[in-house]
Write the structure tokens for this entry.
Amino acid sequence: MAYQLETNTDSSKIIHLNTNDADTYLQSGITTYCSFVLDTPIIVDKEHACLISLNSAIIPYSMYNIRSGVNNSIPFRYSSDNRLGFVIIPEGNYTITTLANKISELLNAVDDLSGNYTISFDRVSMKYTYFSSVSEIFFDFSARTDISNIEMGFGEKQSTGVISSLGIISENVPDVNGSIHSLFIRTNLTSKSSIDSQTKSFSTILGKIPIDTNFGGVLFFNPRDNTQKIDTHIINILTIRITDEKNRNLNLNGLNCNLSIMIDIVNKTDFIKKDNRRTQEIYLENKNKERINEIEKNKKRAGRPRNVGRPKKK
């Protein structure tokens, strides 16, 4: 939606933020959840409305695709007595090959597992096949919440067959980046301008950034149109939070990012007029329908037309 910026309003403001300059970090060790206190607050007159948009973002791709407490556990059960065990994948950024090698290494290192565990990847079907020289365990992804089922190619609550020398093929295509495909910039200012599918309700999302580079690179983002109206007349504290698509805070592992946020000022009456243009169109359409219906009703009330020369009834 485009808005006409008037000359009788204050000029647009751009707030350049570097998370290294934050006044407060709201989660220990996380640079992507922080707040800034503006020494010079932005004040908007009551007759004006305030628009906010993400002008640009520069974020290092230093977050891991296997994260502690998110997707780094592999629960399994012993086929002999249904006893639960699990292995933990160390945090890091894995490829489809290095992840398979690491899972095999972890299973082979479990003391009371006697089998030799290997994993192969078929580049045609794009699926893993899990092998074991001894039929002694099966995966049970319903046993924990911090599971790596997506990365291994299985459903969230799925239990597999017993792993044997014949092999167990993953039900789905493994997605090593399954825990994070996009970044979401959230602020304390937006609350009623965007809706996300996770909450099915209004959210604080200011912008969505796709991951279009490899690990170790830098994400550059310059959106073309991402304007949102905010219900405030003073901006003095700005909270920034960068999350994945499931609203989990991201850890850039000590690195910082840069954001630029645009604040535009428009006349409130002009904003309401433009924002409600479709509402006005619907109103006029309904009024025309009412007019047509009234004409049709009047025609029915008129009765039989009077013949020429026949006197009117008194």
